[in-house]
């Protein structure tokens, strides 16, 4: 898919796209399982559960993704423990992927007025805290999380809200056709499709295998590919 218009808005996923948060998320899940006397899981298994928000991450770790094995009060208690633990340990090992800062600076230099935002299924406060701490916040006019709206990705509500806000910010009507969602999983690709936007998949992220069954419009092998890929949407 391509567009005759230059990009009007870039929307980035966080985990597996801008940052490698795998170890802190895996450690937090296993600390939670241990606290509730459940067996720990391999990091690779936990990583495959990431992408659909905290509730689904915890439910999958409990072996109950459909919610039919545990009562909601228990699940809520487990989620609360996980969130409290993760808030305290979210920056133990998390780092910005090599090339991300340079690429964001290159995009900003080439497109100085192009609005950029974060849309993640991670809760919004940890997302904003991480971006502030790691020097990412300066690039983005907005950062929304999985609890910012009544729905999460791949529902298009979040990205459509960002399109409206970016339009108000720039003083012109930005369309979905001018919008690009950049992320590492099928969730991000589907979010773009559901909004009528374009997508760039990140093969270096936490869930690149999911991009095989739900392919993006373009694939980045590294964050350093992003600036050049933006130009491909002009043709």
What is the strand and helix layout of this fold?
Blueprint lengths: L8 E4 L6 E2 L1 H14 L7 H5 L6 H8 L10 H18 L5 E2 L3 H11 L5 E4 L4 H10 L8 E3 L12 H14 L8 E5 L2 H10 L2 E5 L7 H4 L4 E3 L5 H7 L3
Parallel strand pairs: 1-4, 1-6, 4-5, 6-7, 7-8
Antiparallel strand pairs: 2-3
Helix pairs in contact: 1-4, 3-4
Summarize the structure.
The chain is an alpha/beta fold.
Describe the structure.
With 235 residues, the chain is of the alpha/beta class. The chain folds into two domains: 9-20 and 94-232, 3-Layer(aba) Sandwich (Rossmann fold), CATH 3.40.50.1000; 22-89. The protein is built from ten helices and eight strands. It has helices spanning 22-35, 43-47, 54-61, 72-89, 100-110, 124-133, 157-170, 186-195, 210-213, 226-232, and strands at 9-12, 19-20, 95-96, 116-119, 142-144, 179-183, 198-202, 218-220. The strands form two sheets. The protein has a six-stranded parallel beta sheet. It has a two-stranded antiparallel sheet with strand order 2-3. Strand 7 (198-202), helix 9 and strand 8 (218-220) form a beta-alpha-beta unit. Helix 1 (22-35) packs across helix 4 (72-89) and helix 3 crosses helix 4 (72-89). The mean pLDDT is 94.
Contiguous uncertain segments of 5+ residues: none
Give the mean pLDDT. 94
| Overall 3D form | globular
| CATH architecture annotation name of the largest domain | 3-Layer(aba) Sandwich
**What are the secondary-structure elements, in order, as H or E?**
EEHHHHEHEHEHEHEHEH
Number of DSSP helical runs: 10
Cα-to-Cα separation, first versus last residue: 10 Å
Structural class: alpha/beta
- Tell me how many strands there are: 8
The main pleated sheet reads as: 6 strands, parallel
Round the Cα radius of gyration to an integer and report it.
18 Å
Which fold name corresponds to the CATH topology of the largest domain? Rossmann fold
Helix content range: 40-55%
């Amino acid at each position: 898919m391509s567009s005759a218009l230059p990009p009007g808005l870039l929307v980035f996923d966080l985990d597996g796209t801008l940052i490698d948060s795998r170890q802190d998320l895996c450690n937090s899940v296993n600390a939670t399982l241990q606290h509730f006397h459940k067996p720990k899981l391999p990091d690779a298994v936990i990583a495959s559960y990431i992408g659909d928000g905290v509730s689904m991450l915890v439910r999958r770790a409990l072996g109950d993704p459909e919610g039919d094995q545990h009562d909601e009060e228990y699940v809520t208690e487990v989620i609360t423990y996980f969130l409290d633990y993760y808030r305290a340990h979210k920056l133990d090992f998390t780092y910005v992927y090599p090339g991300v800062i340079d690429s964001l600076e290159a995009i900003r230099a080439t497109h100085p007025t192009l609005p950029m935002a974060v849309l993640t299924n991670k809760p919004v406060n940890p997302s904003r805290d991480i971006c502030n701490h790691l020097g990412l916040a300066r690039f983005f006019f907005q950062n929304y999380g999985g609890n910012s709206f009544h729905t999460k990705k791949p529902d298009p509500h979040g990205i459509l809200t960002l399109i409206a806000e970016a339009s108000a910010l720039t003083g012109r009507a930005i369309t979905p056709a001018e919008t690009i969602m950049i992320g590492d999983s099928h969730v991000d690709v589907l979010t773009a499709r559901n909004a009528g936007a374009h997508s760039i998949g990140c093969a270096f992220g936490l869930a690149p295998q999911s991009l095989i069954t739900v392919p993006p419009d373009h694939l980045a092998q590294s964050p350093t590919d992003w600036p050049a890929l933006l130009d491909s949407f002009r043709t």
